Amino acid sequence: MAKPKILVVDDESAVRFALRDYLEFHGFAVDEASACAEAEARYRKDVYDAVTLDYALPDGNALDLLPRLKAIDAGVPIVLITAQGSIELAVRSIQLGAEQFLVKPVDLAALQVVLERVLENQRNRRKQVATDTREKPLRALDLFLGESPAIRRLEEQATRAASAESPILIQGDTGTGKSELARWLHRHSSRGLEPLLELNCGGFTREFLDTELFGHEKGAFTGAVAAKVGLLEAANRGTVFLDELGDMDLQIQPKLLKALEEKRFRRLGEVHDRKVDFRLIGATHRNLEALVRERLFRADLFYRVSAIQITVPPLSERAEDIPELAQSLLGRITEEWGREPVKLSREALGVLQRHGWPGNIRELRNVLERALLGARTLLIESVDLDFASSPRAGGGAASSRLTLKEMERFHIIQVLKEEGGRVEPAARRLDIPRSTLYQKIKALGL
Ligand SMILES: Nc1ncnc2c1ncn2[C@@H]1O[C@H](COP(=O)(O)OP(=O)(O)OP(=O)(O)O)[C@@H](O)[C@H]1O
Q: Is the ipTM above a cut-off of 0.85?
């Protein structure tokens, strides 16, 4: 993981040297500034994890500088260091947004503890935002089960991609596990302990996508009663996963490109740029190159987001993996449902292996769930497998055993299937807003 970067602001070169020497030895990266103007210029240009700020500076004092730094980026913790240990000064600096207040001469070990703590708090805050916007907790799946050449190739590509820093574009048919792979890549990257923020770009209005990604200032538009932190900002030092990237509105695309190229962006209604450091993982089941040709996706953004390309193979290209995958999926489902472990008969495994799986792993999971609902013993036979699109939710014996949540899940699957996977008409039929349906799709792991 990258070292936490600290900006040390102090007019005395001996103090800056001592702080730099100590902090670098203890695993931090350090930049220095000797005055307010220099500190502000550096702070605008670079991404810092924390700042230590001496009170008296040649061109002003910390109480002048603090609000200016906070206006550029309010999320970076600032530790005030001063010879003038008055209570009023401490209170004022905290009111202005300082995280901590230390009195000179600074005990370097104490400063290290303070910095580690503020960095930890900051990380937790970002994770909190990440959890708030994410519907379900991350869970570890073995994404590379099986011995087929296709899955071995995928594991190899993914392992290489995880350790790089460039943006990743994941392509593949619907239901192949692109979103799960994006989470795996984040967890196995140097940013794995930082937040992962996910957003599905499909079906949202331009305005919604804009504020979700970039945030907005209070009063930026009617209804913006409070400022909002966007996904990019909340994911600072972590990863942003944009699903259905091919559906991103053309007018939002240049803003994303700027954030990727210059590592800066602006909240809606804001006059200054904010710095940000994130890794982008995009996924799409559409052919992005074809979208570029049709001028529905910007070529410059395409080249930027596709520095590393991974294509997840469809199940039909790895039929030999299906028995192991099906048994493992069934194990997960029984665990999630609190059921006893169930096995698939040899014959049933053969039937699964011969099926075409246009809906890939998602479809396999649905078939297994339906089989489990109908199963009367702890062995699923081929007759229990139902490849028809309709879940048994129409008042039969199976449906009366469903919980309300399971009923909801099956009804949503049913309507989505009947609408060919298109969220908008499905939401209309279900009589719920499109965004609610997206949330439910995510929450139910569909
Ligand atoms: N290797 C795997 N093992 C078990 N379950 C998996 C695996 N890969 C994907 N799944 C499950 O299959 C379903 C679809 O996966 P996911 O959402 O990642 O696919 P996707 O390719 O992103 O789909 P879409 O293109 O429709 O967005 C999810 O329920 C997911 O948990």
A: yes
